[in-house]
Records
---
Amino acid sequence: MTGAELRIGVVLEAFLDWPLDEVLPWLREAAPEITDVEVGAGGYAPHPHCDVAVLLHSAAERAAWLDLIARHGLRLDALNAWGNPLHPDEDLARRHDEDLRNAIRLAALLGADRVVAMAGCPAGAPGDGVPHFGAGGWLPYLEGVYQRQWEEQIAPYWSDLAAFAAAESPQLRVCLELHPGTCAFNVETFGRVAALGPSLAANLDPSHFFWMGMDGHRVAEALGELVGHAHGKHANAEPGHASPAGPAVVGALRRRHRRRARSRVADHCPSEARGRRSPPRRRRPRGTRPDRRWPTRRRY
């Protein structure tokens, strides 16, 4: 979003069954208001449309990939490598950290200046095998959990990652989605992480605020210029309730941004775009199962 301009894109995770060279022309025909695409590149994000290893190592492949997108009148908005680089499973954390850093490297090479990610969630104590959401609490066994996580894992990791991103591309922003279950889920916790380096920004997805009982409009106002990217859901408001991601949120972002900002991605394209017919879904061969190495993202 630049001034009064609102650029709208789509997260291609909604089209995992479709090759890139099929989904791009369909988008231009079915949803001509779409100008940008956000492409999965690792972590928990499936990435059938982006072979990160190939693109990192071949300038010719990068040029051809960008040309394919441009031929259909679209632009690369961001790469998405949402995961948990703080996970107590060291192998998983290492993979997600590598995927995030590779997404940053690739974005810089492709000329993109946004990488969408999540802040992650570490263990509650040494030796724990699962992440512990340190959301606070007065009970004795919860006291000090978040502070330990902050001092031992969150601050060291994100300070280093912010420096890495700045070295790869000073203009690039790693936009962390404020999501419960991660160490940056509201204005306060995100603000602490963002203070670790100017390469860190927020990915604003109001849908998560509503099921946490937060006012998305006020969150947008409070974050202000820390918002570097936004996701919007296809949602209808119940009678008597405010629209979850309606004009008020966009207005709040416009009022707060005096310099270049990004708020233009519609997350999960609906099955029909403005009443236009959607492409037929491909059926999996009988007896096969979808890849379950990544979790299905819920639609709220």
---
Amino acid sequence: MTPPLLRGPPRGTLADRNWVDQPGAFPAGQQRRHWQQSEHPAISSSSPVNILSGTSRRTRLIAVIVACALFMQNLDSTVIATALPTMARVFGVEPVRMNVALTSYLLSLAVFIPASGWTADRYGTRTVFRGAIAVFTVDSVLCGRADTLSFLVASRILQGIGGAMMVQVGRLVL
């Protein structure tokens, strides 16, 4: 059996417990901390804690928007890989040459991630996030309208710039 001092807090949620000093358990000047059920009416072991109860509707909406932006960027970075053979046929090029469309997006994403922090500091996180969503969306439409490989690559580079700003600044918005 593990000695009492080496045991961690009791199992269960941390929300319904808090640390309290236990006087008299040790010699003068020393106190041992132990877990005690919370006496706060909103936090009890009999009722689950509603995490969203103190969160405003606007804050939840912002979190959903940022989550959707992160999902779009992650999906967009990988979705083209499955469509490369079909796109190569449409553009009239070999499938191997289509890798430049995938690589250009990932490269511009990696290059502009460091710049997103500076841009957010200079112009404000919400302004940059809104602009990044606009750039990403417009360039996604341009990628869908591309009729040549070079136009697709240029659109993917611009889309990568929007994606870099959108993901990093979106985390700052939260």
---
Amino acid sequence: MSIGLSALFAVVISTLLGATAWSIWRGYQQALTHAGRDSVNFARILSERVGHSVESAHELLLQIRNLSPRSTVRVGEELRALKGTLSADSLPNPELYAIEAYDDFGQVVASTRGRGGVLGKIGDADFFVGLREDSATAIQIGLPQQVGETSLIPIATAIYRTNGAFAGALVATIDTARLRRALVPLDSNPSMVFFLVRADGKILFREPAATGDAAPILLSPPGAAEGGAVRTISVADGVERLHAYTSVQALPLTVAVSTPLSATMDGWRIESGKKVAFTAAVLIFTTLLYLMLLRQLTRVERSEAQFQTVFRNSPIPATIFAVDGGALIDANRAFFEMTGYMRDEIIGKTAHEMGLWDERGTRVLQFKELIEKGTVREREAPFKRRGGELGFASFSAQLVEFHG
């Protein structure tokens, strides 16, 4: 029985530990899923803001270009005429810093920020070269340009002459400081790093500006509507990070959010600690209960062993009969020697079936009296041996609870 109890204890402990481990692992997977979903949602919020800013800038450029679609000089004149309404303080979108017109050499023609413009000469800028060499491209987004303490992202569209030749570009610049301020209301994890990435993988915007090796990992090309998340371990600092990304609709841009994995697991660690503490408490209680039961069971088994030793080796014949039905359950060696029966011959039989008592013996050992009093002491009665010989003995009987 103690072996069975120990096996049951082992099964209970294994099940408890397994259930706790599975619960913690499941919680870890759910925490990862939630962290990835939250990061993607933050990326989408920034994506909508960036998309709105870029689209507003592009639409404004198209409106200005349509004032005189075939003359760079005329566009410059119109832009100068709009100087009063398109000042730095009255641009239609708060992220827009300036609107400027450039000729085909990249020289500024007009600007809402003054005669010299904010970007200076842009003839060699990647976005300007892209517009000049690829007439099929409606919009080009340039690398950030540092103007004093202001970081500007150029958004440009081409201007063409009547014969279709490249005549210059209209450029709107987005103030990244305004984008940073747009992130302030978001209830984001302080360790999150936001990125705006161009189609060629160049980073246009990063907030905070410098945060270790948190460069984003893009799983799909910019322009795909769906987003995603991926876990990576940085080679530079060995930090495992969760990168979430989403594309800016209809633009060759991707917004990515990078978060150290450890920073997203705080809630999971707290819950796991509670589960471990609860499991430890249950283990301690179960172990104490097991030790108490094992000790009690050991005593019972020891008592059972002692009883069996005394019962079987007693020189006085002894038997155990069932009250219900009167079948013989067990007998010791002295009984079998006295009656001449073999064990297999009479186990399970009643005294009547064995012919053990005659009518007088039956009267002497009345079961009704035994049940009422619980005991019968030293009643003399005859009995019959296996061969039919009569014997005479003094009998005593006691009611006991046997095996429950």
